[in-house]
Amino acid sequence: MSMAVGGSGGGPKSDINMTPMIDVLLVLIIIFMVITPLTPKGLEALVPQPPPPGQQASESDLRTVVIQIDKDKKMMINNEPTDENKLGARLEDIFKTRAERVVFVKADPDLEYRYVATAIDIAHGAQIDKVGLMTAKMEAGQ
User: Fold this and answer.
1) 71-112 pLDDT tens trace
2) Residue 69's beta-bridge partner residues?
3) What SS3 class is residue 5?
4) What are the residue boundaries of the structural domains of the chain, listed by start?
5) Which of the listed residues 9, 54, 91, 94 has the most CB atoms within 10 Å of its CB?
6) Are 90 and 104 in contact (CB under 8 A)?
7) How many H-runs (helices) and E-runs (strands) does the chain carry?
8) The dihedral sign for the CA sequence 58, 60, 63, 65
9) Cα–Cα distance measured from residue 124 to residue 8, given in angstroms and rounded to the nearest whole number
């Protein structure tokens, strides 16, 4: 291997020195890795908390609105039957006088998620601020 050092071969060469550029790029990569937050992205989920043992449910717990979807895709709001077309209007009617706009969705575990997503979408369309998800484990008190 030989190296060209200029000599009598026709004058100076104009090669780009890549070492400083690579150093700058490495420093930028490290800076971006450090300042990039490592928080996971996902859905915020509300889960209703059961009352402490020995304490009665408060009035706000009795006012909790739960959209239930069974395995036959039938919807109910607090055990009152409804359907997908009437759900938005019913939610708007329920939350006319309430300041806190929170609803929970409880669905059969074997139900496809798209039906739950539809209920969540209808709730957001009815100006509900927060939509939480209820699970079987939460109801069992675990």
Assistant:
1) 888 999 988 898 888 888 998 888 888 878 889 999 988 888
2) 75, 107
3) coil
4) 59-140
5) 91
6) no
7) 5, 5
8) negative
9) 78
DSSP calls for 45-76 = ---PPPPPTT-PPPHHHHT-EEEEE-TT--EE
Residue with tokens 């020195």: 17
User: Which H or E run includes 82?
Assistant: strand 80-82
Instruction: Please state the pTM of the whole predicted model.
Output: 0.56
| Angle ∠(81,75,137) on CA atoms, nearest 5 | 115
How is domain 59-140 classified at the architecture level of CATH?
2-Layer Sandwich (3.30)
pLDDT digits (tens, 9 = 90+) for 21-34: 999 999 999 988 88
pLDDT at 61: 47
Residue type, position 93, single letter: D
- For residue 21, give both structure tokens: 């550029």
Cα pseudo-dihedral 73, 77, 82, 87, rounded to 10: -90
Q: Which of 1, 4, 22, 2 is closest to 13 using CA atoms?
A: 4
26-35, 49-58, 114-123, 129-138: segment of lowest average pLDDT: 49-58
